[in-house]
Design brief:
49% helix, 18% strand, tRNA modification GTPase MnmE, 6-stranded mixed sheet, Small_GTP-bd, Four Helix Bundle (Hemerythrin (Met), subunit A), 3 domains, hydrolase, flat, alpha/beta, 7-stranded mixed sheet, Rossmann fold, Gyrase A, domain 2
Protein backbone atom coordinates (compact mmCIF):
# COMPACT_ATOMS: atom_id res chain seq x y z
CA UNK A 1 0.00 0.00 0.00
CA UNK A 2 1.46 3.35 -1.07
CA UNK A 3 0.24 6.78 -0.10
CA UNK A 4 0.53 9.89 -2.27
CA UNK A 5 -0.27 13.52 -1.52
CA UNK A 6 -3.19 13.46 -3.97
CA UNK A 7 -4.70 10.48 -2.19
CA UNK A 8 -4.42 12.43 1.06
CA UNK A 9 -6.92 14.95 -0.36
CA UNK A 10 -9.46 12.24 -1.18
CA UNK A 11 -12.44 11.40 1.01
CA UNK A 12 -12.20 7.76 2.02
CA UNK A 13 -14.96 5.46 3.24
CA UNK A 14 -15.10 2.05 4.94
CA UNK A 15 -17.18 -0.06 7.27
CA UNK A 16 -15.68 0.43 10.75
CA UNK A 17 -17.58 -2.41 12.44
CA UNK A 18 -17.12 -6.14 11.69
CA UNK A 19 -18.66 -7.68 8.59
CA UNK A 20 -21.89 -9.59 9.09
CA UNK A 21 -25.43 -8.92 10.27
CA UNK A 22 -25.78 -7.07 13.57
CA UNK A 23 -28.00 -4.57 15.33
CA UNK A 24 -26.03 -1.60 13.99
CA UNK A 25 -23.13 -0.88 11.68
CA UNK A 26 -20.82 2.14 11.63
CA UNK A 27 -19.62 3.52 8.29
CA UNK A 28 -16.72 5.97 8.54
CA UNK A 29 -15.68 8.74 6.13
CA UNK A 30 -12.58 10.93 6.42
CA UNK A 31 -11.35 13.77 4.22
CA UNK A 32 -11.83 17.44 3.41
CA UNK A 33 -15.23 16.79 1.76
CA UNK A 34 -16.52 14.13 4.18
CA UNK A 35 -19.16 16.40 5.77
CA UNK A 36 -20.09 17.99 2.44
CA UNK A 37 -20.65 14.60 0.77
CA UNK A 38 -22.70 13.34 3.68
CA UNK A 39 -24.81 16.49 3.67
CA UNK A 40 -25.76 15.80 0.04
CA UNK A 41 -27.49 12.54 0.94
CA UNK A 42 -28.55 13.20 4.54
CA UNK A 43 -32.04 14.51 5.25
CA UNK A 44 -32.37 16.02 8.69
CA UNK A 45 -30.24 19.02 9.59
CA UNK A 46 -27.73 20.90 7.44
CA UNK A 47 -24.59 19.11 8.60
CA UNK A 48 -22.28 21.83 7.30
CA UNK A 49 -23.75 24.25 9.86
CA UNK A 50 -23.44 21.93 12.88
CA UNK A 51 -20.71 21.90 15.54
CA UNK A 52 -18.04 19.25 15.96
CA UNK A 53 -18.70 16.26 18.20
CA UNK A 54 -22.46 16.33 17.70
CA UNK A 55 -24.86 13.55 16.66
CA UNK A 56 -27.82 14.04 14.32
CA UNK A 57 -30.82 11.85 13.44
CA UNK A 58 -32.14 11.68 9.91
CA UNK A 59 -32.33 9.54 6.80
CA UNK A 60 -29.86 8.65 4.07
CA UNK A 61 -31.51 8.93 0.66
CA UNK A 62 -30.54 8.15 -2.89
CA UNK A 63 -32.70 10.69 -4.66
CA UNK A 64 -36.23 10.09 -3.39
CA UNK A 65 -35.42 6.59 -2.16
CA UNK A 66 -34.85 6.24 1.60
CA UNK A 67 -32.06 3.78 2.31
CA UNK A 68 -32.13 3.92 6.11
CA UNK A 69 -32.76 5.96 9.22
CA UNK A 70 -29.37 6.79 10.70
CA UNK A 71 -27.40 8.68 13.33
CA UNK A 72 -24.59 10.84 11.95
CA UNK A 73 -21.65 11.78 14.21
CA UNK A 74 -19.56 14.80 13.17
CA UNK A 75 -15.90 15.39 13.96
CA UNK A 76 -14.63 18.61 12.39
CA UNK A 77 -10.91 18.98 11.60
CA UNK A 78 -8.59 19.05 13.40
CA UNK A 79 -10.63 17.61 16.29
CA UNK A 80 -10.85 14.07 14.95
CA UNK A 81 -8.88 10.84 14.90
CA UNK A 82 -7.37 11.61 11.48
CA UNK A 83 -7.25 15.40 12.05
CA UNK A 84 -9.47 15.65 8.95
CA UNK A 85 -13.22 16.06 8.74
CA UNK A 86 -14.67 12.73 9.85
CA UNK A 87 -18.25 11.47 9.66
CA UNK A 88 -19.44 8.26 11.27
CA UNK A 89 -22.83 6.98 10.13
CA UNK A 90 -24.63 4.50 12.38
CA UNK A 91 -27.02 2.43 10.27
CA UNK A 92 -28.99 -0.73 10.89
CA UNK A 93 -26.74 -3.77 10.54
CA UNK A 94 -28.22 -5.21 7.35
CA UNK A 95 -25.53 -6.05 4.78
CA UNK A 96 -27.89 -4.73 2.09
CA UNK A 97 -28.16 -1.33 3.83
CA UNK A 98 -24.39 -1.14 4.40
CA UNK A 99 -23.66 -1.88 0.74
CA UNK A 100 -26.26 0.62 -0.48
CA UNK A 101 -24.89 3.42 1.71
CA UNK A 102 -21.27 2.78 0.73
CA UNK A 103 -22.18 2.54 -2.99
CA UNK A 104 -24.03 5.85 -2.70
CA UNK A 105 -20.97 7.62 -1.30
CA UNK A 106 -18.68 6.05 -3.89
CA UNK A 107 -21.02 7.45 -6.55
CA UNK A 108 -20.73 10.87 -4.89
CA UNK A 109 -16.93 10.83 -5.14
CA UNK A 110 -15.57 9.04 -2.08
CA UNK A 111 -13.21 6.11 -2.57
CA UNK A 112 -12.77 2.87 -0.59
CA UNK A 113 -10.24 3.16 2.23
CA UNK A 114 -7.19 0.90 2.13
CA UNK A 115 -6.26 -1.27 5.13
CA UNK A 116 -5.17 0.99 7.99
CA UNK A 117 -5.61 4.18 5.97
CA UNK A 118 -7.52 6.05 8.67
CA UNK A 119 -4.69 5.40 11.14
CA UNK A 120 -2.08 6.17 8.49
CA UNK A 121 -3.68 9.57 7.89
CA UNK A 122 -3.69 10.20 11.64
CA UNK A 123 0.06 9.48 11.69
CA UNK A 124 0.84 11.59 8.61
CA UNK A 125 -1.23 14.46 10.01
CA UNK A 126 0.71 14.42 13.29
CA UNK A 127 -1.94 12.92 15.56
CA UNK A 128 0.65 10.53 16.99
CA UNK A 129 3.94 8.91 16.06
CA UNK A 130 4.52 5.59 14.31
CA UNK A 131 4.98 3.52 17.47
CA UNK A 132 1.67 4.84 18.78
CA UNK A 133 -0.01 4.09 15.44
CA UNK A 134 1.20 0.49 15.60
CA UNK A 135 -0.20 0.25 19.13
CA UNK A 136 -3.68 0.95 17.71
CA UNK A 137 -3.53 -2.37 15.85
CA UNK A 138 -2.19 -4.13 18.96
CA UNK A 139 -5.04 -2.70 21.03
CA UNK A 140 -7.62 -3.99 18.56
CA UNK A 141 -6.13 -7.49 18.70
CA UNK A 142 -5.45 -7.54 22.46
CA UNK A 143 -6.99 -10.70 23.91
CA UNK A 144 -5.77 -10.49 27.51
CA UNK A 145 -5.44 -7.92 30.28
CA UNK A 146 -1.66 -7.75 29.96
CA UNK A 147 -1.63 -7.30 26.16
CA UNK A 148 -4.36 -4.66 26.49
CA UNK A 149 -2.32 -2.73 29.09
CA UNK A 150 0.86 -2.93 27.01
CA UNK A 151 -0.90 -1.67 23.87
CA UNK A 152 -2.73 1.08 25.75
CA UNK A 153 0.50 2.30 27.38
CA UNK A 154 2.25 2.40 24.00
CA UNK A 155 -0.68 4.13 22.30
CA UNK A 156 -0.62 6.82 24.99
CA UNK A 157 3.02 7.46 24.25
CA UNK A 158 4.82 5.72 27.12
CA UNK A 159 7.33 3.98 24.87
CA UNK A 160 7.58 6.88 22.43
CA UNK A 161 8.25 9.37 25.22
CA UNK A 162 11.23 7.38 26.48
CA UNK A 163 12.70 6.99 22.99
CA UNK A 164 12.14 10.67 22.19
CA UNK A 165 13.96 11.81 25.35
CA UNK A 166 16.95 9.64 24.43
CA UNK A 167 16.99 10.96 20.90
CA UNK A 168 16.83 14.63 21.93
CA UNK A 169 19.86 14.24 24.22
CA UNK A 170 21.81 12.63 21.41
CA UNK A 171 20.71 15.29 18.91
CA UNK A 172 22.23 17.96 21.17
CA UNK A 173 25.63 16.28 21.09
CA UNK A 174 25.36 15.65 17.36
CA UNK A 175 24.82 19.38 16.77
CA UNK A 176 27.86 20.21 18.95
CA UNK A 177 30.03 17.76 17.01
CA UNK A 178 28.78 19.19 13.70
CA UNK A 179 29.63 22.68 14.99
CA UNK A 180 33.18 21.58 15.72
CA UNK A 181 33.47 20.35 12.13
CA UNK A 182 32.62 23.89 10.97
CA UNK A 183 35.65 25.12 12.91
CA UNK A 184 37.93 22.39 11.65
CA UNK A 185 40.93 24.70 11.33
CA UNK A 186 40.69 25.85 14.94
CA UNK A 187 41.40 23.93 18.12
CA UNK A 188 37.95 24.18 19.73
CA UNK A 189 35.76 21.67 21.54
CA UNK A 190 32.04 22.35 21.86
CA UNK A 191 31.15 18.77 22.84
CA UNK A 192 33.09 17.32 25.75
CA UNK A 193 34.17 13.78 24.89
CA UNK A 194 33.84 12.84 28.57
CA UNK A 195 30.26 14.12 28.69
CA UNK A 196 29.47 12.40 25.38
CA UNK A 197 30.84 9.12 26.73
CA UNK A 198 28.76 9.45 29.92
CA UNK A 199 25.64 10.19 27.88
CA UNK A 200 26.18 7.23 25.54
CA UNK A 201 26.75 4.93 28.51
CA UNK A 202 23.49 6.15 30.08
CA UNK A 203 21.69 5.62 26.78
CA UNK A 204 23.12 2.12 26.49
CA UNK A 205 21.81 1.19 29.93
CA UNK A 206 18.31 2.30 28.96
CA UNK A 207 18.49 0.69 25.49
CA UNK A 208 19.74 -2.58 26.98
CA UNK A 209 16.86 -2.63 29.46
CA UNK A 210 14.38 -2.06 26.64
CA UNK A 211 15.97 -4.85 24.60
CA UNK A 212 15.78 -7.25 27.56
CA UNK A 213 12.12 -6.35 28.06
CA UNK A 214 11.26 -7.77 24.62
CA UNK A 215 11.14 -11.36 25.90
CA UNK A 216 8.41 -10.36 28.35
CA UNK A 217 6.77 -8.12 25.76
CA UNK A 218 6.63 -10.92 23.23
CA UNK A 219 4.97 -13.16 25.84
CA UNK A 220 2.42 -10.47 26.67
CA UNK A 221 1.58 -9.84 23.02
CA UNK A 222 1.67 -13.35 21.52
CA UNK A 223 1.12 -15.69 24.45
CA UNK A 224 3.37 -18.34 26.02
CA UNK A 225 3.87 -21.50 23.93
CA UNK A 226 3.66 -24.21 26.59
CA UNK A 227 4.35 -27.85 25.74
CA UNK A 228 2.86 -30.66 27.83
CA UNK A 229 5.38 -33.50 27.53
CA UNK A 230 5.90 -36.94 29.07
CA UNK A 231 5.53 -40.66 28.48
CA UNK A 232 2.40 -42.09 26.83
CA UNK A 233 -0.52 -42.39 29.28
CA UNK A 234 1.06 -39.97 31.76
CA UNK A 235 -2.18 -37.99 31.57
CA UNK A 236 -1.14 -35.18 29.20
CA UNK A 237 -4.45 -35.06 27.33
CA UNK A 238 -6.38 -35.32 30.60
CA UNK A 239 -4.39 -32.38 31.98
CA UNK A 240 -5.06 -30.31 28.86
CA UNK A 241 -8.78 -31.03 29.12
CA UNK A 242 -8.75 -30.16 32.84
CA UNK A 243 -6.95 -26.86 32.26
CA UNK A 244 -9.30 -25.93 29.40
CA UNK A 245 -12.40 -27.20 31.19
CA UNK A 246 -13.52 -29.02 28.06
CA UNK A 247 -12.95 -32.33 26.29
CA UNK A 248 -10.52 -30.98 23.71
CA UNK A 249 -8.21 -33.99 23.51
CA UNK A 250 -9.12 -37.67 23.16
CA UNK A 251 -8.39 -39.54 26.40
CA UNK A 252 -7.74 -43.29 26.25
CA UNK A 253 -5.96 -46.02 28.21
CA UNK A 254 -4.34 -47.08 24.94
CA UNK A 255 -0.77 -45.78 24.81
CA UNK A 256 0.08 -43.56 21.84
CA UNK A 257 -3.42 -42.15 21.29
CA UNK A 258 -2.09 -38.62 20.71
CA UNK A 259 0.04 -38.68 17.58
CA UNK A 260 0.15 -35.01 16.64
CA UNK A 261 -0.28 -31.66 18.37
CA UNK A 262 -3.50 -30.56 20.01
CA UNK A 263 -3.33 -26.87 20.84
CA UNK A 264 -5.58 -24.39 22.62
CA UNK A 265 -5.32 -21.21 24.68
CA UNK A 266 -6.12 -20.34 28.27
CA UNK A 267 -5.94 -17.01 30.08
CA UNK A 268 -4.06 -17.26 33.38
CA UNK A 269 -3.62 -14.10 35.43
CA UNK A 270 -4.11 -11.87 32.40
CA UNK A 271 -1.57 -13.78 30.26
CA UNK A 272 -2.45 -16.03 27.32
CA UNK A 273 -0.83 -19.48 27.43
CA UNK A 274 -0.90 -21.62 24.30
CA UNK A 275 -0.97 -25.16 25.66
CA UNK A 276 0.23 -27.86 23.29
CA UNK A 277 -0.58 -31.51 24.03
CA UNK A 278 2.05 -33.66 22.32
CA UNK A 279 2.67 -37.29 21.43
CA UNK A 280 4.09 -39.37 24.28
CA UNK A 281 7.87 -39.66 24.48
CA UNK A 282 8.96 -43.28 24.05
CA UNK A 283 10.76 -45.65 21.70
CA UNK A 284 8.26 -46.98 19.15
CA UNK A 285 8.19 -49.06 15.98
CA UNK A 286 4.92 -47.46 14.84
CA UNK A 287 5.90 -45.20 11.93
CA UNK A 288 3.14 -42.62 12.51
CA UNK A 289 3.71 -42.49 16.27
CA UNK A 290 7.47 -42.14 15.69
CA UNK A 291 6.83 -39.05 13.57
CA UNK A 292 4.70 -37.64 16.40
CA UNK A 293 7.47 -38.29 18.96
CA UNK A 294 10.01 -36.58 16.70
CA UNK A 295 7.74 -33.56 16.32
CA UNK A 296 7.27 -33.43 20.10
CA UNK A 297 11.03 -33.22 20.59
CA UNK A 298 11.28 -30.38 18.08
CA UNK A 299 8.35 -28.56 19.71
CA UNK A 300 10.00 -28.80 23.11
CA UNK A 301 13.14 -27.05 21.83
CA UNK A 302 11.15 -24.01 20.69
CA UNK A 303 8.74 -23.80 23.65
CA UNK A 304 8.85 -21.01 26.24
CA UNK A 305 7.71 -23.42 28.95
CA UNK A 306 7.52 -27.22 29.29
CA UNK A 307 5.15 -29.03 31.63
CA UNK A 308 6.92 -32.36 32.23
CA UNK A 309 4.22 -34.78 33.35
CA UNK A 310 4.85 -38.25 34.76
CA UNK A 311 2.60 -40.98 36.14
CA UNK A 312 3.31 -41.70 39.83
CA UNK A 313 1.95 -45.22 39.37
CA UNK A 314 4.08 -46.06 36.35
CA UNK A 315 7.59 -44.67 36.81
CA UNK A 316 10.56 -44.61 39.18
CA UNK A 317 13.09 -42.05 40.40
CA UNK A 318 15.80 -43.25 37.99
CA UNK A 319 13.57 -42.60 34.98
CA UNK A 320 12.48 -39.23 36.35
CA UNK A 321 16.10 -38.16 36.98
CA UNK A 322 17.03 -39.18 33.44
CA UNK A 323 14.18 -37.14 31.93
CA UNK A 324 14.95 -34.12 34.14
CA UNK A 325 18.58 -34.15 33.00
CA UNK A 326 17.45 -34.14 29.36
CA UNK A 327 15.12 -31.21 30.02
CA UNK A 328 17.86 -29.25 31.81
CA UNK A 329 20.08 -29.68 28.76
CA UNK A 330 17.37 -28.14 26.55
CA UNK A 331 17.68 -24.87 28.45
CA UNK A 332 13.89 -24.29 28.41
CA UNK A 333 12.09 -23.48 31.70
CA UNK A 334 10.08 -26.49 32.87
CA UNK A 335 7.87 -27.68 35.71
CA UNK A 336 7.98 -31.21 37.13
CA UNK A 337 4.41 -32.44 37.55
CA UNK A 338 3.65 -35.73 39.31
CA UNK A 339 0.25 -36.94 38.11
CA UNK A 340 -2.19 -39.53 39.51
CA UNK A 341 -1.38 -38.76 43.15
CA UNK A 342 -4.23 -41.09 44.10
CA UNK A 343 -2.26 -44.03 42.64
CA UNK A 344 1.13 -42.99 44.01
CA UNK A 345 3.69 -45.20 45.69
CA UNK A 346 4.36 -43.49 49.06
CA UNK A 347 8.07 -44.32 48.86
CA UNK A 348 8.35 -42.59 45.45
CA UNK A 349 6.50 -39.53 46.79
CA UNK A 350 8.97 -39.29 49.70
CA UNK A 351 11.93 -39.62 47.30
CA UNK A 352 10.55 -36.89 45.06
CA UNK A 353 9.90 -34.56 47.98
CA UNK A 354 13.52 -35.07 49.05
CA UNK A 355 15.32 -35.05 45.66
CA UNK A 356 12.91 -32.77 43.71
CA UNK A 357 11.15 -30.55 46.30
CA UNK A 358 9.78 -28.31 43.54
CA UNK A 359 7.63 -31.15 42.15
CA UNK A 360 3.92 -30.36 41.87
CA UNK A 361 1.63 -33.26 42.85
CA UNK A 362 -1.72 -33.34 41.03
CA UNK A 363 -4.53 -35.55 39.84
CA UNK A 364 -5.49 -34.33 36.39
CA UNK A 365 -8.44 -36.77 36.23
CA UNK A 366 -9.90 -35.54 39.53
CA UNK A 367 -8.74 -31.93 38.95
CA UNK A 368 -6.81 -31.86 42.23
CA UNK A 369 -4.14 -29.18 42.90
CA UNK A 370 -4.68 -27.53 39.50
CA UNK A 371 -4.82 -24.08 41.12
CA UNK A 372 -1.36 -24.63 42.61
CA UNK A 373 -0.13 -25.70 39.18
CA UNK A 374 -1.57 -22.54 37.56
CA UNK A 375 0.09 -20.38 40.23
CA UNK A 376 3.47 -22.04 39.62
CA UNK A 377 3.06 -21.57 35.86
CA UNK A 378 2.47 -17.84 36.39
CA UNK A 379 5.55 -17.58 38.63
CA UNK A 380 7.72 -18.48 35.63
CA UNK A 381 6.29 -15.54 33.65
CA UNK A 382 7.67 -12.59 35.58
CA UNK A 383 5.09 -9.81 35.23
CA UNK A 384 6.41 -7.76 38.17
CA UNK A 385 8.33 -5.43 35.86
CA UNK A 386 5.27 -4.92 33.68
CA UNK A 387 2.97 -4.28 36.64
CA UNK A 388 5.26 -1.54 37.99
CA UNK A 389 4.57 0.48 34.85
CA UNK A 390 8.01 0.10 33.26
CA UNK A 391 8.21 0.44 29.48
CA UNK A 392 7.90 -2.91 27.71
CA UNK A 393 8.91 -3.55 24.08
CA UNK A 394 6.34 -5.75 22.31
CA UNK A 395 7.05 -5.01 18.63
CA UNK A 396 9.73 -6.94 16.74
CA UNK A 397 10.39 -3.93 14.48
CA UNK A 398 11.17 -1.78 17.53
CA UNK A 399 13.36 -4.56 18.94
CA UNK A 400 15.37 -4.72 15.70
CA UNK A 401 15.87 -0.93 15.68
CA UNK A 402 16.97 -0.98 19.33
CA UNK A 403 19.56 -3.67 18.57
CA UNK A 404 20.94 -1.53 15.73
CA UNK A 405 20.90 1.55 17.98
CA UNK A 406 22.88 -0.30 20.63
CA UNK A 407 25.49 -1.39 18.08
CA UNK A 408 25.83 2.19 16.82
CA UNK A 409 26.23 3.54 20.36
CA UNK A 410 28.93 0.97 21.04
CA UNK A 411 30.71 2.22 17.91
CA UNK A 412 30.61 5.76 19.35
CA UNK A 413 32.30 4.54 22.54
CA UNK A 414 34.91 2.64 20.55
CA UNK A 415 35.53 5.74 18.44
CA UNK A 416 36.05 7.87 21.54
CA UNK A 417 38.52 5.30 22.96
CA UNK A 418 40.38 5.16 19.64
CA UNK A 419 40.33 8.98 19.41
CA UNK A 420 38.92 8.93 15.88
CA UNK A 421 38.21 12.18 14.07
CA UNK A 422 35.02 14.21 14.56
CA UNK A 423 33.54 13.34 11.19
CA UNK A 424 33.52 9.61 12.06
CA UNK A 425 32.09 10.26 15.55
CA UNK A 426 29.36 12.37 13.93
CA UNK A 427 28.65 9.54 11.48
CA UNK A 428 28.12 7.03 14.32
CA UNK A 429 25.87 9.47 16.18
CA UNK A 430 23.78 10.09 13.05
CA UNK A 431 23.43 6.34 12.59
CA UNK A 432 22.16 5.94 16.18
CA UNK A 433 19.70 8.80 15.63
CA UNK A 434 18.50 7.17 12.42
CA UNK A 435 17.63 3.86 14.10
CA UNK A 436 15.91 5.58 17.04
CA UNK A 437 13.97 7.70 14.55
CA UNK A 438 12.78 4.59 12.73
CA UNK A 439 10.85 3.55 15.84
CA UNK A 440 8.77 6.69 16.25
CA UNK A 441 8.56 7.61 12.56
CA UNK A 442 10.95 10.57 12.29
CA UNK A 443 12.71 8.31 9.77
CA UNK A 444 10.34 6.47 7.41
CA UNK A 445 10.10 5.08 3.90
CA UNK A 446 7.04 4.39 1.77
CA UNK A 447 7.80 0.67 1.92
CA UNK A 448 7.97 0.74 5.72
CA UNK A 449 4.64 2.54 6.03
CA UNK A 450 3.02 0.28 3.45
CA UNK A 451 4.19 -2.80 5.35
CA UNK A 452 2.94 -1.53 8.72
CA UNK A 453 -0.49 -0.22 7.71
CA UNK A 454 -1.30 -3.03 5.28
CA UNK A 455 -1.60 -5.31 8.32
CA UNK A 456 -4.43 -3.20 9.78
CA UNK A 457 -8.06 -4.01 9.19
CA UNK A 458 -10.01 -1.91 6.69
CA UNK A 459 -11.92 0.83 8.51
CA UNK A 460 -9.15 1.50 11.04
Amino acid sequence: MSFSLSEGNDTIIALATPQGVGAIAVIRLSGKDAIKLCNEVFFGKNLEKQESHTIHFGTIRDGEKIIDEVLVSLFIAPKSFTKENVVEISTHGSSYIINQVIKLFLKKGARPAKPGEFTQRAFLNGQFDLAQAEAVADLIHADSESSHQAALSQMRGGFSSEIQQLREKLIHFASMIELELDFGEEDVEFASRTELQELVERLLRVIEELILSFDLGNVIKNGVPTVIAGKPNAGKSTLLNALLNEEKAIVSDIAGTTRDFIEDEINLGGVIFRFIDTAGLRETTDTIEAIGVSRTQEKMKTASLILYLFDLGDTDLIEINRDVNKLENLGVPFLKIANKIDKANSELVSELQSKHPDTIFISAGKKENLEELKARILELVNLDKFKTGNTIVTNVRHYDSLIKTRDSLLDILKGIDDQITNDFVAMDIRRSLHYLGEITGEITTDDLLANIFSKFCIGK
